[in-house]
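Re: that chain you flagged

S.,

Sorry for the slow reply, it's been a week of failed gels. I finally had a moment to sit down with the sequence you sent. For the record, here it is as I used it:
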Amino acid sequence: MDHSPRGFTRRRLLQAGAALGGAMLLPGAITHAWAAGSDAPELTTVRVGFIPLTDCAPVIMAALKGFDKKYGISIVPSKEASWAAVRDKLVSGELDAAHMLYGMLYGLELGIAGKTHPMANLMTLNQNGQAITLSTDLLDKGVKDAEGLARYVAASAPGTHTFAHTFPTGTHAMWLYYWLAAAGIHPFNDVRTVVVPPPQMVMNMRIGNMVGFCVGEPWNARAINDRIGFTAATSQAVFPDHPEKILGTRAAWVEQHPHTARALVAAVMEAARWIDASPQNRRETARVLAKRAWLNTKEQYLTGRMLGEYDNGAGARWQDQHPMRFFNDGEVSFPWHSDGMWFLTQFRRWGLLRSDPDYQAIAARINRNDIWQQAASAVGGIATPSGLLRTSTLMDGSRWDGTRPAEYAARFALNRRGDTA
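Prediction finished late last night. Pasting the structure tokens below so you have them in one place:
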């Protein structure tokens, strides 16, 4: 599996800097972009929305461990009921920033996840760590994997079986669609899909509203514990080291509060580094997140998968080679342009976009590498990647490197575009 960053020439880095308003600096350059005495945060309190999922961890631990105070702000986490609520409160200004689905923020920028709003991705909060759960009823019928599911679906009338994800342009929708399509199941023509908030997934499967769902942890582990589902695939098996949640906000908020944005990213980045520093820190994080104020669940549902220890509920156990990561020497948090562009290719594939957008320009506009670099400099000891693109190989063997995105989007046989076979 190849997930290395693509090297950029000096000329291309300077061009990328121009696209980012001159903010992209060459490797080794001095990255202090503010003058002493003039860099105080414009705000002292920052309201950050989150959904009760394991991957909200860097935001919560930044507040509870005092990393925010180190940078002159107080992070106030705000627990939200659904991704739609996060979207609405962020857009209205009730929230300053939020733990967000990567594709949700890009969808807002493009007007396909609600009314169009200029958005900003400040950093990636985590990679990996989501899963696709199928019901134990399917397991009892011999469905253990995608291939078995394809045979089962083929034997039924189209739309008979319902699957859930968490937001129409969100990451979970894209992992679910990709996984189904790789098995020859068209996610729009062969099955029915619905939107369900993450904390309501297990309850809805229990009462028979769907036979499968894609969601973040701990809700997949909870389905196994409650004996109503099993993990058919992890998201990292679909796309190793994939981007997942981001720290998102409005573009106008960053322009109005650039020092606050830098302080916020620095605090959350330092929390992410602390979480990844040791298994003990991950265990402590799981204990904290399980409390009522945050996820309101049992610690045991979080700890195993936080440590990369998987039990799929159907007899398989393994130590995952691509567990949920929060830092990885800063590479997790870097706003790779290729990450955002990948979601655009999937929006195009599934008909959410009627024509190819300007992939590179959109990623350069949304992903605020300038803020990330300033924050990384403030935290210290974090190397800036040499380019803005990285390379990955997905479950079906397709290679994504951020180049020729329109060609990549058009390569899939199963799609909803209407202009390819």
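What I noticed first: Confidence is low (pLDDT under 50) at residues 1-36.

Talk soon,
D.
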